[in-house]
C-alpha cells in the first residue's frame, strides 16, 4: 500500500482519470477489454468529469470498456434520482461511448427470493471477463469500501448487507431525511475488490482524516474494512491534504 497526497481533490482526480485513460488505451492497443470497477458518491465526481472531457476533447473511447459498479441501495428503483444507476448515467455513462451491454450495476429491483442467486451471478460475470483490471474506491466514515461495513469478512463476495447507521446518516441529506434512506444495499465483497489487479482509493476532506489514519496505519481488522487493502499488492491511497491530516 502506498499513499499519494495532493494539494486538493481536483488535482488528485485528474491524475486518477489519466491513469484510467492510459489503461483503457493500453488495453485498446492490444484489442483487449478493459474491466473497470467503479464507485459512486462525492469522491469520484471529478474523476468522471475528467474522463468525459477526455472523451469529448481527446478522443478517448470507452468502446472496449466493461464496467462493474460496486453497489446499489436495496430496494431501489433504477429511475430514482437517489439510485446509483441514476448517478452513474448522469455523471459518466450518458456522456461517453460505452456500450449499454457493458454496464453492470447491482440491481436494486431484484426480488428478495432471487437475490442470493443474483449476487452469485454478479460475481461470476466479473470472473467471466477475467476479473477487474482497475477498481476505483471511496471510503466511508465507518471504514467501509463499497458497502462493506465493519464486520465484513475479508473473503466476502457480492451480497446483500445492512447499512451502518453512520452511513445512513451521511446519506440522509440526499434522501431528505434518514427515514428515507434504504436500510440495505447490494455490494461487491471485500474478496471481490481484493481480486482487482489495481486499486485506487480516494479520500478527500477533513472528515475522512481519522478513518484514513486507521485504514493505512492501524491494524488490519474487520472493524475498519478498508484496512484489508493493506494486504493488497497494488493499492494506492489518493488523498488531499485534509484527509491526510492525521497520518504520522
Ligand atoms: C459508493 C461506495 C461508498 C463510497 C463511500 C464514500 O459506491 O461504494 O463506499 O465510496 O461511502 O462516499 P463519498 O465519496 O460520498 O464520501
UniProtKB/TrEMBL annotation:
Coiled coil, from the record: none
Record protein name field: Glucosamine-6-phosphate deaminase
Report the domain of life of the source organism: Bacteria
* Full protein: residues contained: 29 to 276 of 647
Domain (Glucosamine/galactosamine-6-phosphate isomerase) ranges: 10-236
Amino acid at each position: 500500500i502506498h499513499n499519494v497526497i495532493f494539494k486538493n481533490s481536483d488535482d488528485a482526480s485528474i491524475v486518477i482519470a489519466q491513469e484510467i485513460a492510459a489503461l483503457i488505451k493500453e488495453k485498446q492497443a492490444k484489442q483487449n477489454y478493459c474491466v473497470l470497477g467503479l464507485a459512486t458518491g462525492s469522491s469520484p465526481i471529478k474523476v468522471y468529469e475528467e474522463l468525459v472531457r477526455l472523451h469529448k476533447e481527446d478522443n478517448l473511447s470507452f468502446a472496449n470498456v466493461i464496467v462493474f459498479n460496486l453497489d446499489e441501495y436495496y430496494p431501489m428503483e433504477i429511475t430514482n434520482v437517489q439510485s446509483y444507476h441514476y448517478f452513474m448515467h448522469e455523471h459518466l455513462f450518458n456522456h461517453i461511448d460505452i456500450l449499454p451491454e457493458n454496464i453492470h450495476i447491482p440491481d436494486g429491483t431484484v426480488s428478495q427470493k432471487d437475490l442470493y442467486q443474483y449476487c452469485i451471478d454478479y460475481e461470476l460475470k466479473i470472473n467471466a471477463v477475467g476479473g477487474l483490471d482497475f477498481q476505483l474506491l471511496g471510503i466511508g466514515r465507518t471504514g467501509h469500501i463499497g458497502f462493506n461495513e465493519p464486520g465484513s469478512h475479508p473473503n466476502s463476495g457480492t451480497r446483500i448487507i445492512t447499512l451502518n447507521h453512520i452511513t445512513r446518516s451521511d446519506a440522509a441529506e440526499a434522501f431528505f431525511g434518514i427515514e428515507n434512506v434504504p436500510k440495505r444495499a447490494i455490494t461487491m465483497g471485500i474478496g471481490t475488490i481484493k481480486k482487482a489487479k489495481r486499486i485506487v482509493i480516494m479520500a478527500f476532506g477533513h472528515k475522512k482524516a481519522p478513518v484514513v489514519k486507521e485504514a493505512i496505519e492501524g491494524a488490519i481488522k474487520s472493524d475498519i474494512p478498508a484496512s484489508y487493502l493493506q494486504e493488497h499488492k497494488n493499492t494506492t491511497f489518493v488523498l488531499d491534504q485534509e484527509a491526510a491530516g492525521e497520518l504520522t
